[in-house]
Fold:
Amino acid sequence: MIPISRSFSSSLGKKIIMGLTGLGLSLFLTGHLLGNLSLFLTDRGPFNAYAHFLTGLGELLYMVEAGLLLIFLFHAFYGIWVTYVNWRSRPIGYEVVTPAKGASRKTIASSTMIYTGLTIGVFVILHILFFKYGPGVAEGYKYMHDGKEIRDLYKLVYEAFGNGWYVLWYSVTLIFLGYHLSHGFWSAFQSLGINHPVYTPFLQKLAVIFGIVIGGGFLSIPLYIFLSTGGLQ
Structure:
């Protein structure tokens, strides 16, 4: 029997970790998008109440965030490692990246996973720093909810997405996210050994749909806010 530590340091183990963490992050993105859909409402109450509920979870929220951070770091580390090993194994680098034909599953999305992934990583850090640790009640972002003064995150989001440059940066990154998911989602199942001529094509199509829905869903929010407000800045 191969020790667990040795198994997960192998190439197969790394791919399994990539698959599990990728699916975990996909699940989080789905829930995060559903929560953010309340930004389409003109009433800022539901979104602020949702955000306040999350921050009010206290230690449970910290545990969830710590778990997400570990999943994200494992996914990023092994993604970089697997890409590095693949590059080292190539005798000659590719000059032009184009979608492969025939039986090959190489696509633009699969060939640019490391680049879209790194861009998303930088985006996540900046996103958290601004929206989670950015201006709050003390800076005037206040909203009364059930007789209590809470953070008006709705106002902060609308101000941010009233800036055309901010929307452009978000739009490019969210397009990258859609590309990343369109390959990564089905590839995660393949890494877990779920690979069959019958249902793999279905998973590939499902991954494209998932990438469009998640990437497009998130992208629709800044575009809607910017267009509906006419650009605040």
The chain has a mean pLDDT of 85. Residues 18 and 75 are 5 Å apart (CA to CA). The radius of gyration is 20 Å. The beta strands are 142-145, 148-151.
